[in-house]
Amino acid sequence: MRAARVRPTSPEGTPYGFPGNVAPSSAIEIHDDAPKPQISKPGELLIRVKASTVYKDNLEWNELYPPSHATLGNDFSGIVTAVHDSKQNFSVGDHVYGMTHANRGGTWAEYAIVTTEEAIKKPDNLSWEEAAAIPGSALTADQALFRHVGLEITAQNGQKRVLITGAGGGIGTFLVQFATLAGHHVVAASSSNERNESFLHSIGAHEVVEYKDFATLDKVDVIVDTVGFQVLADCWSVIKPDGTLLSFDARSWGYREEHKRKGVSKGKESVRALYMIAEPSRESMARIAEHVANGNIKGRVSKVVSLNDVREAYESAHSRGIARGKIAVLI
Questions:
Q1: Do 281 and 304 form a contact (C-beta atoms < 8 A)?
Q2: Separation of alpha carbons 234 and 209, rounded Å
Q3: Where are the alpha helices (DSSP H) in the chain?
Q4: What are the strands, taking DSSP E only, across the chain?
Q5: Closest CA to 165 of 109, 120, 220
Q6: Quick check: 320 pLDDT over 60?
């Protein structure tokens, strides 16, 4: 089986892994003789992978450093080739898409094991690469808004004012769309209105603002921060005292305590500061699939590469400029 795998040690024999020894992109190798996975547990499906995507920080995930070679890739679209039992609501030949758990990966390969919690049937109107471009970012956005922040999926009990940072990015675009579709008022923030304002309005944002103009904003109930660093620090100036701030930067709690200590966020002690990592979820995927079927969202693909070119694609993911959409890998 062909697969893109990560060499477990440096050329000098030092094991890759945390702390402080992230594998470089040069450790990604194409193997023609990788072992084909075999299903062994209830709920498992074996799929012939047709497409996956590139995450720019995948080598920084310490879950992906087992003792032997790791196979990267989490998003997938493909064809079911084997099922563990007949009670799984999937059959051989089904076209599916989804995302494997962060601690497993495995989809930069001709075959991969996925679970029934991770997969959902692919509609015919999505290409393999379009389908693979949806799950990771869309699942993250859905769970951020509706599971962790607790926004209503339909704003029946009051519209919230929601600020999204990095709104033009992969996760940010889904955050803007999902919050808008749920009936909330969305403020989309990015580094450049000139580059992003028209696009962000086109996907549903009610207001578009640059980070440097946060001081001009009315206070917001919810912030979902996809950027971190200084942008996250500036978010404290626009959140309401009883608001919720979710960041994908693990230092979000640290920022809260630091601001309290300095007195910068006086009166913000009741702000709920959250951090999250997305997990496979059929509930989330069902909502996403409904949006796909209704034409509300689609998979945006900026570039398509072959498995042979996945190392170069990973390297380019760190310097893609303003490209919108995922790098898809056709297997």
A1: no
A2: 13
A3: 128-132, 135-142, 170-181, 193-202, 229-235, 252-262, 282-293, 310-316
A4: 3-6, 28-31, 44-53, 70-71, 75-83, 95-99, 111-115, 119-121, 161-165, 185-190, 207-210, 220-225, 239-247, 272-275, 301-306, 326-330
A5: 220
A6: no
CA distance 88 to 256: 44
- Could you give the domains of the chain? 3-122+300-330 (3.90.180.10), 139-275 (3.40.50.720)
CA angle 288, 292, 296 (to 5 degrees): 100
Q: Cα–Cα distances in Å, from 80 out to 60, 133, 160?
A: 30, 19, 41
Strand, helix or coil at 19? coil
Q: Is 0.85 topped by the overall pTM? A: yes
Name residue 163's amino acid: L
Could you give the CA distance from residue 160 to residue 152 in angstroms, rounded to a whole number? 9
Distance CA 307, CA 3 (A): 8
What's the confidence (pLDDT) of residue 22? 86
pLDDT of residue 88: 75
- Segment 90-126, tens digit of pLDDT: 999 999 999 999 888 899 999 999 999 999 999 988 9
Three-state SS for 101?
coil
